């Protein structure tokens, strides 16, 4: 099973934000960066599936050279290889444009499964994953809190409102957006 995990680098949650000279964005030179939290859970879930079914986990990240820290961390945690789509000046790239760029990067990989975090810690749009699924023509499920890939199809548990859950069976290839807290994250060795 080939699984692609989309991982984003975001500003540290405790960072002090200052407006830049152009007064249009934050001063990124003052920031420290980290892995988007829910993308870390997507990576963990993909590594668990790889341990059960075998296969390959490929991390894909979009951003400037500093994103290599995210990729190195994912490889140290158990990912097999990575795709770095190098792009600068992504300050105001929306979910649709990001999904278009990522679709071109992963289309040739022909994955069985694509996983991403539910939403990013910086903007929180929660749209890039579902737009990517549409661009690639894949079925998708959002707010996933459990994945069972023991059979030919995927069986996923989704979190709904008011404490309700939904089990859903879907074919592969597919795209899942993973909810934070789905499992305990392993650390790089």
Explained architecture:
With 189 residues, the protein is of the alpha/beta class. 25% of the residues lie in helices and 30% in strands. The chain has 4 helices and 10 strands; from the N terminus they run E-E-E-H-E-H-E-H-E-H-E-E-E-E. The strands form 2 sheets. Strands 5-4-1-6-10-7-8-9 form an 8-stranded mixed sheet, with helices on both faces. A two-stranded antiparallel ribbon has the order 2-3. Helix 3 crosses helix 4. The longest helix has 17 residues. The radius of gyration is 16 Å and the shape is globular. The relative contact order is 0.20.
Features:
30% strand; 189 residues; eight-stranded mixed sheet; alpha/beta; two-stranded antiparallel ribbon; single chain
* Radius of gyration based on Cα positions: 16 Å
Distance between the termini: 24 Å
Taking the sheet with the most strands, its summary is: 8 strands, mixed
What is the overall silhouette?
globular
Low-confidence stretches: none
Write the layout of secondary structure elements.
Elements: E1 2-6, E2 9-11, E3 33-35, H1 37-53, E4 56-63, H2 68-77, E5 81-86, H3 95-106, E6 113-117, H4 128-136, E7 140-148, E8 154-159, E9 165-170, E10 174-178
Parallel strand pairs: 1-4, 1-6, 4-5, 6-10, 7-10
Antiparallel strand pairs: 2-3, 7-8, 8-9
Please provide a brief summary of the model:
The chain is of the alpha/beta class and 189 residues long. Helices cover 25% and strands 30% of the residues. It has helices at residues 37-53, 68-77, 95-106, 128-136, and strands at 2-6, 9-11, 33-35, 56-63, 81-86, 113-117, 140-148, 154-159, 165-170, 174-178.
């Amino acid at each position: 099973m080939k699984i692609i995990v989309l991982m984003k680098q975001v500003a540290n949650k405790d960072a002090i934000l200052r407006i830049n000279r152009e007064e249009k964005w934050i001063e990124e030179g003052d920031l420290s960066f980290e892995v988007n939290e829910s993308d870390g859970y997507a990576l963990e879930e993909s590594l668990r599936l790889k341990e059960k079914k075998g296969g390959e986990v490929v991390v894909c990240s979009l951003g400037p050279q500093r994103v290599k820290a995210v990729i190195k961390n994912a490889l140290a945690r158990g990912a097999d290889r990575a795709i770095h789509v190098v792009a600068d000046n992504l300050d105001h790239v929306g979910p649709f444009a990001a999904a278009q760029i990522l679709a071109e990067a992963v289309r040739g990989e022909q994955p069985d499964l694509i996983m991403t975090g539910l939403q990013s810690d910086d903007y929180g749009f929660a749209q890039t994953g579902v737009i990517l699924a549409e661009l690639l023509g894949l079925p998708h499920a959002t707010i996933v809190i459990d994945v069972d890939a023991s059979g030919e199809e995927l069986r996923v548990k989704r979190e709904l409102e008011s404490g309700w859950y939904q089990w859903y069976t879907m074919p592969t290839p597919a795209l899942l957006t993973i909810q934070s807290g789905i499992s305990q994250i392993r650390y790089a060795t």
